[in-house]
Each structure stands twice: as C-alpha cells, then as structure tokens.
Design goal:
The protein is 27% helix and 28% strand. It is an alpha+beta fold.
C-alpha cells in the first residue's frame, strides 16, 4: 500500500509539534525525533553577494565589468580616466626632460657643449696658464653676481642667423686662475647645410697683458686642409 508523508512545521501546530505524520491507508502514525528542516528563507530566496561596493578608491579591477551596477561603472570609469591622465602627464614630462637634455647638454648646438669646449681649450693653452696660473686650477663661470658663493652664475650667450642663413653663436664668460682672472669671448658659426661649428674667434683678456687669441679667423685665414673636425667643431692644426 502506498504511503504518504506529511511534514508539519511550527511550534503552534495543533496536530503535531515537530513530529512526522505517516499515513498508511486509513491509519496514521506519528514519529517524533530531532530533525533538520530547511527554512522558507533558504528555500525561496537568492544568495546574497558578499563583495564590497566598488568605489573610485578601492577598485582593483578584479570584478568583471558586467557584474557592476551603474554607480560602480561610473566609479571605475572615473578611476581609469584619472590613471590615464597621470600616465600621459608622465610621458609629456619625460619627453620634455629628454628634449631639454638633448638641446641643452648633449647636442653639439647646445650652450653647455660650446662652453665646455672653450674651457678645455683655455686650460690646455700654455699662454693662458702662464697668464692666469696653474691650468688645473683655472675655473670658468658666468657673470658676477651679488652672491660670490653662487654656483650657477648666468652665462651671457646669443644665437642668431644672418642674411646668408649662417647660424652664429657668441658667448662671454669669466675665468680665474691661481694668480689672476680674465674674460673670455668666443664666436662660432655654422654655414647653412653644414653640421660642424667653426671658430671665428676665441680669446682671453687678462688685465695688464696683451689679448691672447686661441682662435682668430680674421688674423689667420683658413688654408686648404689646415682644419680638422672633431666633436662637431672645426679645430685648427
């Protein structure tokens, strides 16, 4: 004979309280005991998500875009736009620094390169060493300032092009040796289509002594094969 089972749940049931009512045809029996039953909430409700609300500050990208609500999608978009802005700003600053270093430090057209080459020529010239003092103690600096301890003094220089499209560069700075000081003037030029700079003049003025010319194209005209190129400059043999 078929049997039917009826589960009665609830502390206020008039027939059975927490028991099992078993029907056998027209008869029934009650079985009591400890049983575990599923509640209505666990049977019918959907599982509750345990993840945190996505915001601009805590989004790490692990939650899939399709699982985000409208507010969370707006937070992720804001965060990614901000991050992209930081990256682009960094790229622009890096490019600017690279351009500055190339044009002001490493390029043969830079003022720093022209200055360093002139100082090397001055320190290696025996006439200048005799006039100023020991060569390795000769220091070069820009225009005098009110602060005698200032390390970065401005150096007067100028770039311009003439009517024939020749580029010119002039510079004026100071040198000082172990015994006395002097003033340096240089003028270099680069003709259109050329890559090397040539000296028009480079001289040192020391008070009480004749002007010392290291380069002077007007006094010593170029002769065939009399110059050679090195480090972007024309040097006289």
């Amino acid at each position: 004979m078929d049997s039917k089972l009826l589960l009665l749940i609830g502390p206020r049931s008039s027939a059975v309280r927490g028991g099992l009512l078993v029907w056998h045809g027209s008869r029934c029996s009650i079985t009591r005991g400890s049983r575990s039953y599923a509640t209505q909430n666990s049977l019918g409700s959907s599982p509750i998500s345990s993840r945190k609300q996505i915001t601009v500050t805590n989004d790490d990208g692990r939650v899939d875009w399709r699982e985000l609500n409208v507010k969370e999608k707006a937070a992720r978009t804001t965060q990614q736009t901000f991050n992209l802005g930081i990256i682009l700003t960094g790229l622009v600053m890096t490019g600017g620094c690279a351009y500055f270093l190339h044009t002001e430090v490493f390029s043969t057209d830079s003022k720093t390169v022209q200055f360093n080459r002139a100082v090397d020529r001055i320190r290696s010239d025996s006439r200048v060493r005799e006039a100023l003092g020991s060569g390795h103690k000769i220091r070069a600096f820009g225009e005098p300032t009110w602060n005698r301890w200032a390390r970065a003094r401005p150096i007067a220089s100028k770039n311009y092009r003439d009517a024939s499209n020749t580029e010119h560069f002039t510079m004026h700075f100071n040198v000082e040796g172990s015994s006395r000081g002097g003033v340096v003037d240089l003028h270099t030029f680069k003709r259109h289509g050329q890559s090397n700079w040539e000296y028009k003049y480079l001289f040192v003025d020391v008070k009480g002594q004749p002007r010392i010319y290291l380069e002077n194209i007007d006094v010593s005209p170029d002769k065939p094969n009399s110059n050679f190129s090195f480090l972007g400059m024309q040097w006289r043999k």
